[in-house]
Design goal:
Layout: H1 5-12, E1 16-21, H2 24-31, E2 38-40, H3 42-50, H4 60-73, E3 78-81, H5 89-102, E4 106-110, H6 129-142, E5 149-154, H7 156-160, H8 162-174, E6 179-182, H9 188-197, E7 203-205, H10 217-223, E8 227-230, H11 233-252, H12 264-271, H13 273-284
Parallel strand pairs: 1-2, 1-8, 2-3, 3-4, 4-5, 5-6, 7-8
Helix pairs in contact: 4-5, 5-6, 8-9
Length: about 290
């Protein structure tokens, strides 16, 4: 079942800050950190599961398999990327029902043409506005619970400009989207315009190295945003740590103090080994 806490936070004016997770270690560690939500990033999930770019190559089944496991193993409400809904209107209905059944609390759907591209890369094209409005209507009609939130994203800013992005955001809200996501605004002034002109809870994508300025949660809330995701912080920090650790091992033939490692005992705890050991004591007589 969707977690009502995000809808409640939006109603109360509380800010929702969500780190990006992309596989089970990142999800389990983030789950213990006390965030109000976790964000299953498409970029990171496709990269970790398939070793491929986020360019429409992952299928609905690829994503649902990973998302289902993340929801099953964590206690924090999950916001999940669903790209374009993986096809036409019937696919959108199927995707909404599947994500909700998997335990997702908020689904993100976007107006890109298929195959989609990462929102902070060039050459993105969007479908006609009326096509995306129909997708939102289908999504709203096919959810089982009102606590399952529909986040409607437009990628029109980069190719068509901020005026068109705001026009679409307004139309998405009128179509029934619970949260509006204007992807990759290019300045704080543009972000202020989005907040001033779209009457709906707003979603900010804080991508390290992306097109949008990185702002604090406090500043985003001050501007009028309700939710911020940091989708890349997990896989970018992991990539930096792994590159450094593997280089250290290659150079020295062993792990040196130059590399900071996660405590092995703590990792055992995160993975749930204490429960395994208690089980063995009770049943296996070890």
């Amino acid at each position: 079942m969707p977690d009502a806490s995000i809808r409640k936070a939006l109603k109360n004016g509380d800010f929702v800050l969500a780190p990006g997770v992309f596989e089970l270690i990142s999800a389990l560690i983030a789950d213990r950190a006390g965030f109000p939500a976790l964000y299953v990033t498409g970029y990171g999930t496709v990269a970790s599961a398939l070793g491929l770019p986020d360019a429409g190559l992952a299928t609905y089944s690829d994503m649902l398999d990973r998302i289902s496991l993340i929801c099953e193993r964590t206690n924090t409400p999950v916001i999940a990327d669903a790209d374009t809904g993986y096809g036409g209107l019937l696919n959108v209905a199927h995707t909404v029902r599947g994500y909700e059944q998997a335990g997702v609390t908020a689904i993100q759907l976007e107006d890109q043409e298929f195959p989609k591209k990462c929102g902070h890369t060039p050459n993105r094209r969007v479908v006609p506005l009326e096509d995306m409005v129909k997708k939102i209507e289908v999504a709203v009609d096919n959810r089982r619970s009102d606590d399952f939130l529909i986040i409607a994203r437009t990628d029109s800013r980069t190719g068509l400009g901020i005026d068109e992005a705001i026009r679409r955001g307004k139309a998405f809200a009128e179509a029934g989207a619970d949260v509006v996501f204007v992807e990759s605004p290019e300045s704080e002034d543009e972000m202020k315009r989005i907040a001033d002109e779209i009457d709906a809870p707003l979603f900010a994508n804080m991508v390290n190295g992306g097109r949008t300025p990185l702002l604090s949660a406090d500043r985003l809330k001050e501007l009028g945003f309700s939710i911020a995701i940091h989708p890349a912080v997990g896989f970018l920090s992991m990539g930096a740590a792994l590159e450094k650790a593997y280089a250290d091992l290659k150079q020295n033939g062993e792990t040196t103090d130059a590399v900071e490692l996660y405590d092995f005992a703590r990792m055992n705890e995160v993975m749930g080994f204490p429960a395994v050991w208690e089980f063995e004591k009770k049943y296996a007589q070890v």
